[in-house]
Amino acid sequence: MPTHPPTTVLRPEDGDPxxxxxxxxxxxxxxxVDFETRVDFRRLRDYRLHRAxxxxxxxxxxxxxxxxxxxxxxxxxxxIGEWERDKYCRFALLVADREPIVWDFGSAAVHHRLYCDWxxxxxCRAGVLGxxxxxxxxxxxxxxHAEEIMALLRDAGVAAGKVGVDxxxxxxxFALQEAGLHIADGQQIILDAxxxxxxxxxxxxxxxxxxxxxxxxxxxEELKPGVRESDIVARANAMLYAMGSDxxxxxxxxxxxxxxxxxxxxxxxxxxxxxxxxxxxLQAFNGYRTCYYRTFNVGRASAAQHDAxxxxxxxxxxxxxxxxxxxxxxxxxxxxxxAGDFGFPDERAAFGLQFGxxxxxxxxxxxxxxxxxxxxxxMEIRTGMxxxxxxxxxxxxxxSAARIEEEVVVTDTGCRVITHFPAEELPIANAY
Length: 432
What we know:
Largest sheet: 6 strands, mixed
CATH architecture of the largest domain: Alpha-Beta Complex
CATH topology of the largest domain: Creatine Amidinohydrolase
Order of helices and strands: HEHEEHEHEHEHHHEEEEHHEEEEEE
Number of strands: 16
Number of domains: 2
Strand order of the largest sheet: 4-3-2-1-5-6
Low-confidence stretches: 1-15
Radius of gyration: 23 Å
Distance between the termini: 52 Å
């Protein structure tokens, strides 16, 4: 039977009159207006903090110490720019019955006191750690902050308990232990909280998908001989930022002989007539991400390419048909082909090709669906989850391949697909 961690408090529909599966999911645009209720950011912030606090209360930890910028944003609704993502220079402390404390990069803490009225100004603090080791531990910043955190835990009366830490620099981990913290795995706690999305999160995810719908129409028009993979990536980046994206994380562009095996990147390869080409657009709107593959052929398609696309689509449709509350991720993974059935030696080598993963403030959230992990360790699919399902099928010509992905929202009886660019049949760009 599927298993799931114990935190199931606060369903997304609790207290939310707009959670109505009989109506279309909103994709409300980029701006707030006075004549429609769109995304309610105060409700969004309150919901996320409540979920994190509830998950903490039902865990064996007394506090969460967060360094992952997605987790910091989830509990505090603070963000200072995409450059922060790999610096490990920000952190936040959460005790279940208290407001979050955020240490931010230099003047960003002052900015939060002025503009983030949902935070206690005294909880917006300046701080800096090692910045991936460029500030050596011997300078003492990590030691000072670790002792500061320990003092706050004593003040909250939880210093003797476990502190859940998500990710941090190794030297900071040692400094926390030397300060007396009892460290546990906090990433599982916060990921449990982030599984179920409320209507505002779903609206933002749907808006992000709508932006990529438009990008794929552009790609369908522009994909022609003489255009490079990198040209498509550049145009997609420009279009997404013009539409309001706050982060284009990556765009995979793979064509021709590069399709098999899948390299997960792009180059300056020239598009040629008859190429099969697939793309993945990973970007965020107000932090909420897309993972959205589409495959095209350029001008014409061979029988082998059509066949690969049909099989890829069939595997995807079988998975989508199963998505509803109460289904186990093992049941979904079981309808996908085993690694050996499409040319790979084992499931590790094929990981990520027949794949499902949660979407939210991060590209990969729960649930993860894969034959590698789900058959033996299933999770239960629940209302309010949002995730992507992606399949891959190499063609019999030895180099072409099809890759398709749909994002789905789990409703109370099934699921809604929110990626709308047509993919039922192989799209031919600029057909001859």
